[in-house]
Amino acid sequence: MSQNETSGTVAVDNQKIKTKQMVLIALMTAVTCVLGPLSIPLPFSPVPISLTNFAIFLAIFVLGMKNGTISFIIYLLLGAVGVPVFSSFRGGLQVLAGPTGGYLIGFIFLALIMGFALDHFDRKLVPTIIGMIIGMVVCYAFGTVWLAKLLSLSFKEGLMMGVIPYLAGDVAKIIIAAIVGPKLYGATQKIR
Predict the structure, then answer these.
(1) Rounded-to-integer distance, Cα 16 and Cα 9, Å
(2) How many other C-beta atoms can be found within 10 angstroms of the C-beta atom of residue 191?
(3) For 61-80, how does the pLDDT look when each residue is reduced to its tens digit (9 = 90+)?
(4) 50 vs 95: CA distance, rounded Å
């Protein structure tokens, strides 16, 4: 095989990898757009129970830190321009500026922290779960400060309204994602 044939083969292989990455990013963005609007409103809080963080967990398992974060940012941009992909099928900048906006933006930190743990510890499950937990704590803190500031609450009141009622559900989402996520990743690796 000549030098030109070898470099041509490498170029084709690299193009396949880029195309596969773009397709997977689009697919995981679509998954987030489907799961994100599914929510259960709570009468005592403007923050509904949502599957957005679960979708992010899955996206990071499949895509890793960089592409998973890109996928979530595309989701945020779609929502910001008015596509009804946020909880309760809402969209627009007013949602990002509203009481749940801090959590939505905080999910970027979740994606980065979980993705860092996944990428830098060779996809080992325990460090990845620790990354998920730390990412959620940072997201909770960012969202709670935002919520408290917007609604003139103390930080403790913000926690009671925007974090405490969601802890059990988020633990369940972490457990389910830790089971399903590696299997999804394995399935995507078989795609050519």
Answers:
(1) 11
(2) 8
(3) 999 999 999 999 999 999 99
(4) 14
Segment 1-11, tens digit of pLDDT: 555 555 555 56
> In b/e form, how buried is each residue of 129-145, taking b as 16+ CB within 10 angstroms?
bebbbbbbebbbbbbbe
Bridge partners of residue 61, in order along the sequence: none
Measured between alpha carbons, how far is 1 from 99 in angstroms, rounded to an integer? 61
Is 151 in contact with 99 (CB distance < 8 Å)?
A: yes
Residue bearing tokens 């460090």: 127
CA distance 8 to 18: 15
pLDDT on residue 3:
54
Structure tokens at 56: 């992010």
pTM score of the predicted model: 0.90
Nearest to 79 by CA among 60, 64, 58, 94: 94
- Cα 181 from Cα 18, distance rounded (Å): 22
Structure tokens at 33: 């757009």
